[in-house]
Amino acid sequence: MRIEYHPAIEAELAEVRNYYNNRSRNLGDDFINEFERQVLHIAAMPSRWMVVRGDTRKALMRRFPYLILFRVVDDSVIRITVIKHERRHPAYGMHRS
């Protein structure tokens, strides 16, 4: 399964990584590693995750209070559209495709 990322994902990940690295050494790197592991889980079984609206699904990260929104574009492509804190407004990023 091929993974595509919305253009805003890179900036969101950098912001979260910097935030956690400023709190504790290497914690931001741990966040990125957890994100990458979760993306691999998503790619392995995309239909496992809960639908939030239309064809958008969400996957919760285990160690960090963040969730990943994604869409299955077709049988071979998953598009990660949003990475956001669980307390962020529910509509944040829902317009992305």
Give a brief rundown of this model.
With 97 residues, the chain is of the alpha+beta class. It has helices at 9-23, 27-44; strands at 2-5, 50-53, 56-60, 66-74, 77-85.
Describe the structure.
With 97 residues, the protein is α+β, with helices and mostly antiparallel strands. The protein is 34% helix and 32% strand. It is globular, with a radius of gyration of 13 Å.
Q: Which percent bin holds the helix content?
A: 25-40%
Main sheet makeup? 5 strands, mixed
- How far is the N terminus from the C terminus? 18 Å
Low-confidence stretches: none
How large is the radius of gyration?
A: 13 Å
- Which class of secondary structure composition applies to the elements? alpha+beta
Supply the number of helical segments.
2
Largest beta sheet: what is the strand line-up? Answer: 1-5-4-3-2
* Structure summary, number of beta strands: 5
What is the H/E order? EHHEEEE
Tell me the β content: 25-35%
Mean pLDDT across every amino acid position: 94
The structural domain count equals: 1
Please tell me what the overall shape is.
globular
CATH architecture: 2-Layer Sandwich
CATH top level is: Alpha Beta
**CATH H-level superfamily:** RelE-like
The CATH topology, please?
YaeB-like fold
